[in-house]
């Protein structure tokens, strides 16, 4: 399938490389950094993995916003650990993307210059403590649904990074669920705060799976390359099914009265999503886009001395080792 969708190479070395690549993909095996790969495969991966890394890093901001206001020391410690995990996810993913030949510095520069994309959901504000619960439950929940199949992605470093990321995402989702559960069983005002947070984060979390299948032109190629395993709509309906069960335990509701299980298709159905809003936010016009990028830019500038010191230390260590050798 891959051969029919990509441009066909003409050079002899590329022909052999393409044939080897096609065999690996057909065997559902793994491509490693030094293997020959089609340029389009490399580009797709750099785009996808760097966008994913940027999302982890930018995604720290809406939640970090609540670290100083967490309702107890225990909640503060848990939230700090969670936000720190997201930084780690960004680092695993930047490292995986670097193995494809794009330096991390270039990816960071593209992000702070506003040239790179990240998940549109992180451009929404966190208005109450319950939002931290809703993010953990819905946003990390959607991330798990999306990312578990990526553990089998054909590009080795990406798949292996995702295995570690997914383990931590399960903890994130549980901490979010537990925050909501406690609020939902609290005072009427706390329960209402939890419901409002779920109401606001529900639709953006469904849109995290990307546009509907008939408006997602790159998905077919990504599936042919075994990067993606399921389509956006397939993953989205699965996620809805999971949330329907869990929201009952919470004693809350999902803000969508059109959710139903279709026995004929064996799939969950949900109400329409506002894709115009999704496109607006993705284009940089969401409620917090400029704030998120500005904060990221400041953090990058503030961290310049750390990078310089680390580089100087590494150079000195290297020189010392050379001297010994
Ligand atoms: Fe993460
Ligand atoms: Fe997470």
UniProtKB/TrEMBL annotation:
Keywords: Oxidoreductase. InterPro entries: Aromatic_CoA_ox/epox (IPR052703), Ferritin-like (IPR012347), Ferritin-like_SF (IPR009078), PaaA (IPR011881), PaaA_PaaC (IPR007814). It is an enzyme of class 1 (oxidoreductase). GO terms for molecular function: phenylacetyl-CoA 1,2-epoxidase activity. The keyword Oxidoreductase applies. Gene3D superfamilies: 1.20.1260.10. The keyword Oxidoreductase applies. Its EC number is 1.14.13.149. PANTHER family: 1,2-PHENYLACETYL-COA EPOXIDASE, SUBUNIT A (PTHR30458:SF2), PHENYLACETIC ACID DEGRADATION PROTEIN PAA (PTHR30458). This is Ring-1,2-phenylacetyl-CoA epoxidase subunit PaaA. It comes from Arthrobacter russicus.
């Amino acid at each position: 399938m891959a051969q029919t969708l990509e441009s066909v190479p003409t050079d002899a070395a590329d022909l052999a490389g393409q044939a080897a690549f096609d065999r690996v993909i057909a065997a559902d095996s793994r491509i490693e950094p030094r293997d020959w790969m089609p340029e389009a495969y490399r580009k797709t991966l750099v785009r996808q993995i760097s966008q994913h890394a940027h999302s982890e890093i930018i995604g720290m901001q809406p939640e970090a916003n609540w670290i100083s206001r967490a309702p107890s020391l225990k909640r503060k410690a848990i939230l700090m650990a969670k936000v720190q995990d997201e930084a780690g996810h960004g680092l695993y993913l930047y490292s995986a993307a670097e193995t494809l030949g794009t330096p991390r510095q270039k990816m960071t520069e593209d992000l702070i210059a506003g040239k790179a994309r990240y998940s549109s959901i992180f451009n929404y504000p966190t208005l109450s403590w319950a939002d931290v619960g809703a993010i953990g439950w819905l946003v990390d929940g959607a991330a798990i649904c999306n990312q578990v199949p990526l553990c089998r992605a054909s590009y080795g470093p990406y798949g292996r990074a995702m295995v570690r990321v997914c383990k931590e995402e399960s903890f994130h989702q549980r901490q979010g669920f537990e925050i909501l559960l406690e609020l939902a069983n609290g005072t009427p005002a706390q329960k209402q705060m939890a419901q409002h947070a779920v109401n606001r984060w529900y639709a953006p979390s469904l849109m995290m799976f990307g546009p509907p299948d008939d408006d997602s032109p790159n998905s077919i190629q990504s599936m042919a390359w075994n990067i993606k395993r399921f389509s956006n709509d397939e993953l989205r309906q699965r996620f809805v099914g999971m949330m329907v069960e869990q929201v009952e335990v919470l004693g809350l509701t999902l803000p969508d009265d059109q959710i139903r299980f279709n026995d004929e298709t064996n799939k969950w159905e949900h109400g329409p999503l506002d894709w115009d809003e999704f496109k607006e936010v993705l284009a940089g016009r969401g409620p917090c886009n400029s704030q998120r990028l500005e904060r990221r830019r400041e953090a990058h500038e503030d961290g310049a001395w750390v990078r310089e010191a680390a580089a100087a230390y590494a150079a000195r260590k290297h020189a010392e080792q050379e001297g010994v050798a």
